[in-house]
Every structure is written in C-alpha cells, then in structure tokens.
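Q: Can I borrow your eye for a moment on a structure tokenisation matter? Would you mind producing a protein record, from residues through to fold? Write it directly below this note and I will take it from there.
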Amino acid sequence: MDAQQNTLEIKNLTVEYIVDNEVVKAVTGVNITIPAGKTFGLVGETGAGKTTTALSILNLLPLPAGRIVSGEIFVNGQNVFGLAPERLREMRGSQMAMVFQDPMSSLNPIKTVGEQIAEGMRIHRGLGSKEALIEATKMLEMVGIPGSRVSEYPHQFSGGMKQRVIIAIALACNPDLLIADEPTTALDVTIQAQVLKLIRALKENSRMAMLMITHALGIVAEVCDFVGIMYAGRIVECGTLADIFDDLHHPYTRGLFGSLPDIENRRVELKPIPGLIPDPMDLPPGCAFHPRCSYARAECSRDLPNVKWLSDTHYISCHLYNETSENKL
C-alpha cells in the first residue's frame, strides 16, 4: 500500500511513564500502519500498552508522567509530534477521534447529549448553534437513537445508548481515523452486538480508518482487517486477519486462542496461559513472555528476539523463528 494511502503510520514508538521515580516501559518499538478504509485490531491483556499507544496518536499522554522517548506518528502524512498545539487541537475531532472505554465517565452530566455532539461541529466545522443541533439530531439517528432525545441528559440513557452517543460525538466531524478503545467492555452481550453492527456499517459506508483496541478475539474477527498481538509493550505478532486466525505462530498468540472455549466441542479443556503479565516497572530480560512460555530456551531469557517476516503481511518476534532456528511450532 502506497504511503500516501495510509491514514495512520506509527514508526518505532517508545513510551515511558515516570511513577514514584521509577521508569515504566509502557510501549517499546511499536510499528502500525492502517490504510484508508481498513481496521487494525490491537489485541492484548490489560496492561499490555494498548491504550498508551492510542493516547500517543492523539498526543494526549498524561503529563508530566508520560513521555514519548522515540518514534514518529503520521496521520494523513502529518507527524503529530511536530505540530504546534493549535494545529494538533484542530486535528483532534476533525481528522482523528477516539471512543474511550467508559461511556459513563466520558459524557458531561450537566450538558444535553445534543449539546455535546454539536460542540465539535461548531468548533471544527464552523456551524452555528442551531445548525449544529440539527446535525447532532441526525447523528443521533445515525447511531440508532431517536432524534427526539437530543435534548435529554446522559443519566436518561442506558449504558448501550451512552456508548452510541460517544460514537456519535467521535464521528460528528467525519474523522479520517477513529480510535475505539474497548468500545464494548461495559456492555451486555446484546448491546455489544448492536454496537459492533453499527461499527461495521460505518466502516462499510466510509473510507475511515479504524484502530480497534480490545482483548476480545471475537470482536477482532468481526470488524478487523489487520491484527497486532501486543505483550508487555511490544507487538509480538502482526498480520492480516487470516494470518493471525489461520496461521498463528507466536506462543503467546497460541495461548490467547487456547484460552477460548470451543462451543462446538465442549469436552475440549481450556488451556489458559500460566502466570501473569509482568510488571512494566520490572520487565524480565530478553523476551518478556519467556517466564510464561513452555517453549522458552536459554536465549529467550537473555536476548530480545528480532522481527522475522513470514510473508509480505505477517511477522513475528520470537527466538523460535530466527534465521537459524529449525525448532518452529
């Protein structure tokens, strides 16, 4: 894919936090490319660095604790780290937008949902108050909420409807990039299905690129074109949806899939990954997954694995797949 057609390009991103004078290595050497109209699923356990990656795109890391150590992030060809604050504020909402995890805390309780949707339109699209409210009503209807509820307050909506309102706010200015951070986490199964259906419809009807952050592989299978498996701040395996679901290789990726129940064969026992994700303040040497990996060898606890490309679209970071290894999974 030509670089000019890529909505998002993250190159060698490394992010740290300083907490109680300790360095937290949140993200290390991350590379992500999302072409226009495509969805990239970033998958991993809690604490893997997924949300930090998302906040870095918007340049919204909490200060002064968070700091970008190295790397570049391009949105529509512009490096967001080199932009003046005024230009960056213009891009947020107009070119890139984010759906945060918790709809309960993302909405202002003393403003109507219509006012909150219209705000971005007034700022970024230059609409007057009356015109913006008319457009906000249309946005509500687009996400499946009656326009007559435009003057109601967040507490009058269910959790699923609040999440739809958040999506309406994010899409109000037709951004080129939508970042969805666990958009269905707090929702019941029925509402999850409705939100995912909405996201799929939005993707089909526009050239908007999307970064979907989740720990649920089922969601990835439904909406994503590309998948990155993240562990302890690094992407350990990345490829197309077919690469990851049909030709997975990394032991951690295999562990994630082994933890899923098989509804067609309920006699098959789950194979959970032993242990816990490491403390980012005290990452183990070498490959961070080696203490939990049943395939670990001496070099795994000593050296970081190099990236090995298995195809034009599929790469892995694992010592079992280095240039000389013959002991592949």
